[in-house]
Amino acid sequence: MDIEKVEKLVKKKRAKFPEKLIQEIAEAAERHDLDDKELDELVKEIKRAYTRSEVESGEAVGTVAAQSVGEPGTQMTMRTFHYAGVAELNVTLGLPRLIEIVDARKKISTPTMAIYFDEDHAADEEFVRTIANRIGKITLNDILKDFNVNYASMNMSVEIDDEQVKEKRLDYDEVLAKIEKTFKSVEINNNLLSFEPKITDPKHAIRELRLLADKVRDLQISGIKNIGKVVIRKEGQEWVIHTEGSNLGAVLKMDGVDRVRTTTNDIHEVEKVLGIEAARNSIIHEAQTTMEEQGLTVDVRHIMLVADMMTADGIVKSIGRHGISGEKASVLARASFEETGKHLLRASIRGEVDHLTGIIENIIIGQPIPLGTGSVGVIMKEK
């Protein structure tokens, strides 16, 4: 179906539709093979539904949005769920997650990433496993066959497991280079490492040896900063990596990673790497997903309004006394929210003036509110 034809029909009906809707109408008309009369009827019906769903002028959209997001929030559970089919990864859902989103927390409790791959590599299991081992944290302890600490001769011997190195797809020389760089007192003989620490204080010799043993075990030989465990799953025809922890910037730089679909649930990280518009989309997506997870449906326009308010100033702000509510222009509106005395005292010291343009401040002093019928002022000209 020709989009121009649909556009002409929409103009004729004096409907103002967004481009995407016009495109969808054209696609539907082609799919169902509609003739001109049927298309005419379809556009008429859509116009009726579209007009009905528009917000009236003077509607209290903020209050409605607050209720629409707040009310389902009271029906949410407080549990931490296992991540969709992955037993090893926990992720915060429900009310705690919603609070995390609107509070714009810098440190979220369970950051996680879903890493997708481009067409050439999505089905290549070997490639995905290699990348997973480059992303996930691997310590020396993960590839050891044998670990002996000898307190009599005050030394330590370690044997590296060749099979584990192969299975984790690591470069053997790189591993040895990392060990040599970190520990000066190491002797390497094929895959046997012996450590002869220089004891500085004979009284605490055993403690020093134990600390060295822990340091050897915990040496990170592979992985990206801030990312812990990784889980590889097959979703449909492609392989996907889910991580514990998140580092979007570093992952997007890797070859073969799909930069469009790879996501993180850390909104501040999205803002840092991809900018404020992406952060706004991330807030909408996270809030919607959290609601749907609990079987609650909220009109996306309410969530979009929340996301717009949070990102309107070019940074992600929280909703609350440290963010949007605490920065309102009206003194009475700020005082009615939290820390009443503090706001009133500050305003009186500064000599602030409240122009009573909002709703809260007019309710406090008992005037009609600028909403609905109160949003219209009638002026008569004298003859």
UniProtKB/TrEMBL annotation:
What is this protein's name?
Answer: DNA-directed RNA polymerase subunit Rpo1C
Q: Which GO terms describe its molecular function?
A: DNA binding; DNA-directed RNA polymerase activity
What the entry lists under SUPFAM superfamilies is as follows: beta and beta-prime subunits of DNA dependent RNA-polymerase
GO terms for biological process?
DNA-templated transcription
- Enumerate the NCBIfam families for this protein: RNA_pol_rpoA2 (TIGR02389)
Q: Report the transmembrane regions from the record.
A: none
Instruction: Share what the entry says about its subunit structure, partners included.
Output: Part of the RNA polymerase complex.
Stated role: DNA-dependent RNA polymerase (RNAP) catalyzes the transcription of DNA into RNA using the four ribonucleoside triphosphates as substrates. Forms part of the jaw domain.
Q: Which Pfam families match?
A: RNA_pol_Rpb1_5
Provide the top EC class. Answer: transferase
Catalysed reactions, semicolon-separated:
RNA(n) + a ribonucleoside 5'-triphosphate = RNA(n+1) + diphosphate
Family assignment?
Belongs to the RNA polymerase beta' chain family.
Gene behind the chain: rpoA2
The UniProt keyword set, sorted, is: Cytoplasm, DNA-binding, DNA-directed RNA polymerase, Nucleotidyltransferase, Transcription, Transferase
Give the UniProt subcellular location, in the record's own words. Cytoplasm
Q: Where is the RNA polymerase Rpb1 domain?
A: 54-330
